[in-house]
Amino acid sequence: MMILGLNKTTLLDYPEHLAATVFLGGCNFRCPYCHNRDLVVNPDLLPPYSREEILAFLSKRRNILGNVCISGGEPTLNPDLPEFLESIKALGYSIKLDTNGSNPDMLKLLKDEHLIDYCAMDIKNSPEKYMSTTGLGMRPCLDNTGTKSSGDALLLYVQRSADLLLSNADNAFTYEFRTTVVKGLHDESDMRVISKWLSGAKAYFLQSYVENENVIQKGFQPHTEETLRSFAAICREHIPNTYLRGVS
After folding, report:
1. What is the topology classification, in CATH, of domain 3-245?
2. In whole angstroms, what is the distance from residue 119 CA to residue 96 CA?
3. Which of the chain's ends, N or C, has fewer CB atoms near its CB within 10 Å?
4. Are the C-beta atoms of 28 and 77 separated by less than 8 Å?
């Protein structure tokens, strides 16, 4: 496991909670608008934290924070993730997981073993645009076993993860779906397809794209606020709890 970042205090990453965010390196996607370029593309160049360092910090702050967000990269690619989360849970923390949904078996294990309390799953785009939006094009993607997988298999994994969350009957477990909406990559038809796909979801967030120095590929633009609000209205036909993020 490559622990490559620690945000010691945040009010943004774990909704309505004060939390620390731990960033794990490595990802099987290459979304060109991703803000964590080095974590995804060059994880070996970043200075790592040891597990002991992270747990020592969390032990000291547990009476102040109480919540941890595990982000990346893609955390579920790490086979030792359950053990790491068990250690955090032992300190009394509530845990939120950020995931791209490509490892449904790991997600199910973490949920069934009560190692996560909140899951935020990224929905990159409508199914027909998934490979291009994830930056994989026609290239194979590494699946949850570390082997190369076709685009059809990738979508199957993502669908299984989405179905796992959509079928959730545990009121103690919270989830959300979210899409970073980028001009040129997402349009009205995509919003209609995605909202039908996730119909009945507890919560769906449309996040406005913001350009920064750490994106994998520069040059993308956000949609206007008016367009984003129209997208949200479309999604509410199937997901009433659709909200905007990054819009005033």
Report:
1. TIM Barrel (3.20.20)
2. 6
3. C
4. yes
